[in-house]
Amino acid sequence: MYRIVKSMIYTYSDLDYLKLLTYNIAQLLALGEVNYMSEKHIQQILEIEKRAEELHEVAVHDAQQLPSLAEQDAQNILDQALSEAHAEARKLVSQAQAEEEVSRILAQAEEKNHQIETLAMSNFDRAVTYILDRVTGKA
Prior knowledge:
Blueprint: H1 2-11, H2 15-31, H3 39-136
């Protein structure tokens, strides 16, 4: 029996298994199934129980830390999303301002082009009149 138990202990380190093993050994002792139990066996059982308790404490501690870790992760995700949103907003505002500037410059250029066209048309009419006067000999 001891060899089977020992091989199982080294094969499994799961908390539930250790608790079950301790329980089963205690049941066997209570039923009188195991007549001989040395000090070494008792010490090993106590070590198994101690290890099971340590694993349980670690699991409880880790479980208690999960909500705060999840909250920190969520806050980090929110902060990152907010930072990215601000960067995107600045980019859009910058683009909008650039587009407004382009529109303003284009409107000024069109106005100046219209003025030049108007001036050119008036000069064109005078030039045609001058050339006609020269050709006809009136000048």
